Amino acid sequence: MRRFWFRLVVPGLVSAWIAACGGEGGGAAGGEAAQIPFPVDTTTAATITGTVRFEGTPPVMPTIDMSEEPACRDKYTEPPRAQTVVVNPNGTLKNVFVYVKAGLDTTLRFPVPRDSAWIDQSGCRYEPHVFGMQVGQTLAIKNSDAVLHNINAKPTANRGFNISQPQAGMVSTRTFQVPEIMIPIGCDVHGWMSAYVGVLRHPYFSTSGDDGSFTITRLPPGTYTLEAWHEQYGTQTVEVTVGPNETKTVEFVFRPAATS
Q1: Does some domain include residue 242?
Q2: Full-prediction pTM beyond 0.70?
Q3: What total number of domains does the chain contain?
Q4: How far apart are CA 98 and CA 111, in angstroms?
Q5: If 0-12 CB within 10 Å is exposed, 13-18 middle and 19+ buried, where does residue 237 land?
Q6: Does residue 56 lie within any of the structural domains?
Q7: Which of 9, 71, 133, 176 has the fewest Cβ atoms nearer than 10 Å?
Q8: Over the stretch 212-242, which tens digit does the pLDDT of each residue have?
Q9: First and final CA of the chain: distance in angstroms?
Q10: CATH code of the domain in which 67 resides
Q11: Is residue 212 part of a domain?
C-alpha cells in the first residue's frame, strides 16, 4: 500500500519541479510568467505614423532559381525575385524597420508580449523578411515547406543558433536576451533565403509594408529619435516631438547610391 502511494505521487512532484524550473526550454514560454503592467498612461499616449518613400529608378532584383526545389517553385505563378529592395506600386519602400532609438525614459520597464513573434519558411523564402520583437519574447520559427530548411541566426550581441527543420509543419522556438539592431537570419540549404529581426527592450517599432506605411502607438509624450533601417540603403534618423494624445506624421526618403 505504501509502495503504491509512492509511485502515484512522485510523477506529480517531478512535474511540479519541472514547471517551477521553467520546463525544458532555455527561455520564457511567453505567457506563463506574471506580467508587469504597461508603464505608460494610455489615456495620454501619443502616436507616430509615417511612410518610407523611394526616389529614383527601382533596381531590378534577380530571379531565384528554385528548379531543384519543385515543392517551393510550384508555389509561385512566376519566378520569385530577391527581396533585398522591394519598391511598392505607389513608390514606397517595403521592409524598412522603424524604431525609437532614443528619447525614452530608461527607467521604464515594459512587459514581454505573451504572443510569440513568428517567422515562416514558405516557398523557400522567409516571411516576414524584416520584423521586430522584444527582448525575452518567444520567436516561433515554422517550416511550411515539404523540404529541409535550417535556420541560422548570426547575432553579434546575442547567442546565435543554427537549427534544422526537415519536415513541413515543424515549429522551433528561441529567444534573444539583449537588444540588437539587426540580426541576420539565413538558410544554409538555400543560400538566397534571408531575413532580419530587430530586438528591443520596448514595443516602439514597426516595419513598412505593402503601402510603405508604419505606425508606432502608445508612446509617452516626449521628444524621440526615430531610426529607419534598410538592409541595402542603410539608416536614416529624424527627431519627433509628440504631446499628450497627439499624432505626428513623418516621412523617410531612401535613394539609390550615386554611381560614377
Answers
A1: yes
A2: yes
A3: 1
A4: 20
A5: exposed
A6: yes
A7: 9
A8: 999 999 999 999 999 999 999 999 999 999 9
A9: 89
A10: 2.60.40.420
A11: yes
